[in-house]
């Protein structure tokens, strides 16, 4: 940001202080379009121009008038403004007579809706018949069918704010696509590169989005269209917005990969002769020359493979030393493992001796029991 831009614009925190608004009230004022912001710098961060602050502070009802226009109330306070019960106000809000301006999820994972106090007062002045007596039949039937238009009206309000905040057709299409499920977007937008471009331009999450897993899942469902007619409306709007965006400019495609250029051989110096691969190196005094051809390797000596005779005995060829000769520590007359007479295996003979010793009482003294001195 340049010095000139810094003198003309003010950060959001500083602007909220000068307008005597809390942070949530300032965000709501920006969302409603009461405070205009402009992108500044390469990152596109929104800031408030100094002339905009001068315009707002010069109003005759500042700051009470601005604070009243961004005042948000809950169900109980809104019902108190209309002098009706909270249950009746909830039924009126569910049937779409009052649109919420924001929502939050409490610790019990219940959705808490907030409404503009100014709009609630205007509704009471415009529809006084709905504040007393029995509700009309069509409203009672819609309530009996569990109709709830609060999420849909909030999404419509948010979409209007997003569309008013930009003139870029691709950004407007991304704002519409943010209300649809990825499956719905894939059915409308066939090109994967266009879908990726819309995903990059997706608007940020609404302020106050919960972070906890359970509450975040509930809030995420509220930001997506769920009624069939609402989904159809946004699909048609997205198709029209894409036609407008494609007419202005196509979506950016990834650039083609530059082919690897062939390596250019390095030219040899003038007058230089190529050295053959097996040319001997120059003789250095005191160091014996390295032969250019490696010494010949003697051919391998053939080794006779022993064969197995009858009863599993190993028969070695003549002239090949036996296993006993391979162990110089063993006496010459002692037979090795391969020179044992054929018969049963060592394990079988050991089991026979064990059975015979157990039958005749041989083994440990005391009938096979360990002595008391056994450690």
Automatic annotation (TrEMBL):
Ranges for region Disordered: 247-273, 314-375
Native source organism of the sequence: Streptomyces venezuelae (strain ATCC 10712 / CBS 650.69 / DSM 40230 / JCM 4526 / NBRC 13096 / PD 04745)
Biased composition (Low complexity): 314-336
Protein known as: Uncharacterized protein
InterPro entries linked to this entry: DUF6397 (IPR045652)
A Pfam family matched in the record: DUF6397
